[in-house]
Amino acid sequence: MDYSTILTLCGFSFLSGFVDAIIGGGGLIQTPAILFSLPQYPVPTLIASTKIPSLCGSLMGAFQYSRRVVVIGKFIGPMMAIAFGASWLGSWTLTRVPNSFMKPFALAILITVFIYTLTKKEFGQVVHQHVSARQQRLRMWLMGAGIGFYDGFFGPGTGSFLVLGFIALIGFDFLKASAHAKLVNAATNLASTLFFMSEGKILYAVAFPMAVANLSGAFLGARLAILKGNQFIRVFFLLIITATIIRFGWDLFD
Predict the structure, then answer these.
(1) Fewer Cβ in 10 A, N or C end of the chain?
(2) pLDDT tens-digit profile of 165-182?
(3) What's the pTM?
(4) C-alpha pair distances (Å), 209 with each of 57, 169, 188, 200, 213
(5) What's the 3-state SS for 174-222?
(6) What is the pLDDT of residue 113?
(7) In 10 A of CB 253, how many CB atoms?
(8) What's the CA angle centered on 183, arms 170 and 155, to 5 degrees?
(9) Among residues 186, 144, 135, 156, which one has the least CA distance to residue 35?
C-alpha cells in the first residue's frame, strides 16, 4: 500500500466528513472510495476500516452542534444507548446473513422522502411543538433501535434517516435534527467500531489517517451548517438523498 493511495483516501474521507456533518450520507463517498482503491482486501475488512473515520467525524460533528444547539439530554442519552446496542446487534447479524434485501427497501423509502421534502417547502424549516414529552421519548427510543440496527447491518444513509426521523416524528427543524442525529450516529459508529475491532477486521494503517481527515472535514461541515441554517441544510439534504437514490438504484439494476 503506497502513500499516494492513503492520501487519496484521506481526501475522500475529508469530503465524507464534511458532507456527513451537514446532513449525513458521508458513507456514500468514503465507502466506494476505499472499495475501489484497495480491491485486494476483503470487502468486510474495508467496510470495517471506515468505521473509525466515521466515528471520529460523528464525534466532531456532535461536539460542534452541541455547543450551539440545545439538545434534549434526558431523552437523547437513553436513545444513544439503545442505538449502540442495536448497532452492535446489526453488525453481528451482518456476519451471519446477507444484507442484499435491504437495498430495495431503503431505495423505496428514500424516493418517498425526496418527493415529500421537495414538495413540502416548510418541511424541517421550523420546530413544531406538537409532540408530547412522552411521545418524544417513545419515538426517539424506537428510532434508536430501528436505525441503530440498520446502521450496524447495512449503513448507507443512516445520518439522513436520523435527520428525517427527528423532523417527521419529533418535530425538529433541520439544524436541531442534525445536532441530535450526530449524537446518535456517534453511538452507532462506536458500536460498529468496537465490534469490528474485536473481530480483527480493521486496517489501522488506513483507518487512522482517514480518521484525521474525516474529523477535519466534519469540523468545517458542522460550522458551515450552523452558520448557514435550515435552508442550506435542506438543499444539502435533497442533494444527498438524490445521490443515495442513484447509488442504490445503480447497485440494484446494474
Answers:
(1) C
(2) 898 888 888 888 888 999
(3) 0.80
(4) 12, 37, 21, 18, 7
(5) HHHHHHHHHHHHHHHHHHHHHHHHHCCCCCHHHHHHHHHHHHHHHHHHH
(6) 61
(7) 6
(8) 90
(9) 156
Write down the H helix ranges in 24-173: 27-37, 43-49, 51-66, 73-94, 102-119, 133-153, 158-165
Greatest CA separation found in the chain?
Answer: 55
Query: C-alpha distances in angstroms, 53 versus 4, 11, 152, 186?
Result: 18, 12, 15, 11
CA end-to-end span of the chain: 30
Q: Give the whole-angstrom CA distance, residue 16 versus residue 21.
A: 8
- Please state, in angstroms and rounded to a whole number, the distance separating the CA atoms of residues 163 and 160: 5
The reported pLDDT for the residue numbered 195 is 93
Q: Which cell numbers hold the place of 193?
A: 467500531
Angle at 236 between CA 65 and CA 71, to 5 degrees: 20
Element of type H or E holding 231: helix 230-253
Residue matched to cell numbers 439538545: 71
- 39 φ, ψ (degrees, to nearest 5): -70, -15
Structural domain boundaries in the chain: 3-253
CA atoms lying within 13 Å on the CB side of residue 173: 15
Identify the burial level of 39 via C-beta atoms within 10 angstroms of its C-beta, where 0-12 means exposed, 13-18 middle and 19 or more buried: exposed
C-alpha triplet 107, 113, 117: angle, nearest 5°: 150
